[in-house]
Amino acid sequence: MQYWLHEKQANGCDYTIGCGIRLQKLEATTLEEAVKLAEENMNVDINDYKIVEAQILEVNSIHTIDIPKLKLLLNKQRQLRKQLEQESKDKIEYSRLKSKFENS
Questions:
Q1: For 11, left (φ over 0), alpha (ψ -120 to 50), or beta?
Q2: Which of these, 39, 30, 29, lies nearest to 5 by C-alpha position?
Q3: Has residue 72 got a pLDDT over 90?
Q4: What is the distance between the alpha carbons of residues 47 and 30, in angstroms, rounded to a whole number?
Q5: What is the 3-state secondary structure (H, E, C) of the chain?
Q6: Which residues pair with 23 in a beta bridge?
Q7: Residue 103 carries which DSSP code?
Q8: How confident is the model at residue 43 (pLDDT cuts 50, 70, 90)?
Q9: What is the pLDDT of residue 98?
Q10: Using one digit for the tens of pLDDT, what is the confidence trace for 4-25?
Q11: Is the confidence at residue 31, as pLDDT, over 90?
């Protein structure tokens, strides 16, 4: 079991990922040790980092997401969506032109 200290900052942030949040691994083997370490080491006012909430997370395992693979998948989905949108526009334009020239 791993223990992590999760702290949240007051006063908002600049909308970046993880802004206003700090996550720190605690070198503890029990929840009691983790609590003690967190309380001993937590600096509530470091560089104007005003902590308003803190939690200890018990983590059984960590799974890594394959970001390059995910990006490829998302790009393929985006391309397919664009292709389908273009085909739909083309069909509408084709119907409009067909109707125009058949009726003239």
A1: left
A2: 39
A3: yes
A4: 30
A5: CEEEEEEEECCCCCCCCCCCEEEEEECCCCHHHHHHHHHHHCCCEECCEEEEEEEEEEECCCCCCCHHHHHHHHHHHHHHHHHHHHHHHHHHHHHHHHHHHHCC
A6: 6
A7: -
A8: low
A9: 92
A10: 999 888 776 766 777 888 889 9
A11: yes
Residue type, 17: I
Please compute the mean of the pLDDT values over residues 55-66 and round it to a whole number.
Answer: 94
Cα 3 to Cα 33: distance, rounded to the nearest angstrom: 9
Structure tokens at 98: 């067909």
Lateral strand order in the sheet of 21-26:
21-26, 2-9, 49-59, 45-46
Contacts for 51 with CB less than 8 Å, ≥ 6 apart: 7, 8, 9, 10, 42, 44, 45
Tokens representing residue 37 in the block? 């370490």
